Amino acid sequence: MSELDNRISLPAARRRVSDTKERRTASLRVQRMRENLLAYGFLAPSLLLFAVFLFYPMFKSVYLSLHSTDPTGQIAAYVGLDNFKAVFQSGLFLQGMKVTLLFVLFTVPTGILAALILAALTHNRFKGMRLFQFVFSLPVVLSVGSSAVIWKFLFHPTLGMLNYLLSKVGIDPIPWLTSPDWALVSISIMTIWMNLGFNYIILSSGLQGIPDEIYESAKIDGAGPLVTFRKISMPLLSPTLFFVTVVSIIGAFQSFGQINILTRGGPMDSTNVFVYSIYQEAFVNFRFGTGSAQALILFAVIMLLTLIQFKWVERKVHYQ
Amino acid sequence: MKTPWTKSLLYVLLTICAALVLYPVLYTFFMAVMTPEDASAYPPHIIPKSIDLSNFTEVFDIVPIGSFIGNTFLVAGLTMLGQLITASMAAYAFAKMQFKGKNVVFSMFVATMMIPWEVTMIPNYLTIRSWGWLDSYQGLTVPFLATAFGTFLLRQFFMQLPKELFEAAKIDGCGHIRYFVSHVLPLSRPALGTLAIYSFLNMYNSYLWPLLVTNTPEMRTVQIGISMLEFQESTAWNLVFAGTALVILPSLLLLVFGLKQLVRGMAAGALKG
Known about the structure:
Oligomer: heterodimer
Number of strands of chain B: 0
Structural class of chain A: mainly alpha
Radius of gyration of chain B: 24 Å
Order of helices and strands of chain B: HHHHHHHHHHHHHH
């Protein structure tokens, strides 16, 4: 019962008791009906959109993954689990998985650590901190499209600024995007930069959420800045760190834009992450069946990761 | 900690970090104002020797930057508006109404948050194509008009509104619809603002979906359009960067004027959501 339906007893109405009771139950039923209808009316737009663009596609994905399709997307034949078998046998899946895991490993810990250090260093009331906070938040508004284009030219083998600066300190030019050994590292560097804004903003607000009194009493007890950070900031920050980690890992698994612009999965599949190979399978090779099979595998992996994190990591998280 | 020595060390450290973070953006603006000779010179200039503003007008002749930016703002704006409407309505039903099957519907909403978007991408593309919605604004926006995350955010806020308000409204003969429109929505401006920024940025930054559903340059959004620049004329770097600078300028201005709101919005997502 919502608050709006609580009967308010007004002294005005004085009818025979049984009559009132009857009317009351009847009108209550009508009211309940009306509230049900109204509630579903409020939910209708969302429910309709979810039905068409979320629930139906989920089933369609499963259906597609069990069939082979012609290039226009029409179902050609039922193939059972052949699509999944093909994905595993082609080595595509293993390669994609390996690249994606490496990418997570390169970007997530480094990205969070860098943002955490910057957030800790700017968490004080010195002059000019506003300016630094602005600069470190800045990448958040730069989208993957523009960031990737900028970095593509920074990475340029001969004319790019990065190799020029390296030559200044006597380091040979690095084949950033053209060598299989470097391509994933280069994309990771760019991704860390791109994610810095978000991570920094979230971790700084987390730090600001810790009450000043705790720091003051620590100071009175004679704790230095490093001890304070380790014993007070870190534990109190752990829910925020947990959130940033979950979001970063899932984000890394879903990366596509920077790959498509910088390397198109190459050289030699060294940057062929999971979503990129789904894209290629479905929208370049027009094999919607195997594409859907890969997408469902991605779904399973992300689901598993999220569950593991909530089960294991959350236990070590300190909630205030 | 507070000695002048450590303090200046901190400033030096932060300045180096800031320079590293800022440089790609500065580089964009430096390159955007260079003459073609300067831009392709070797060794490259770290800062421009000359300032040539004609790049900004010239880039409009190569690609329809104006319509890229227009499309992006239209698509992001429409999605934002749609999400605000659908999410606030659904959130009101969950927060303030009582109906049969509430728990079932609610857990359905929870479940949608677990589905990564890539899983629905292929069937959605086929749906949009079969409706003839490729290369159209409805194809770009309609699949994203409902949001489970936004519904949760708003539901949380609506539930915090004091109960007494409802009782007073009820005595005054106010029904659900009028209560929602003239009391709940105006009171929820901070939460609605948070969701607005969130959905706008999300849509503004989306890359894969616009890449799939648009084909003609006139319908492309900024994110796709910007990467078209580099294929046009690979030597005219100054023009590529003039285009990039034009594209990132609106979002930089958004940051200058909206940093506080943005931070509040993101923190709300992280700490409460």
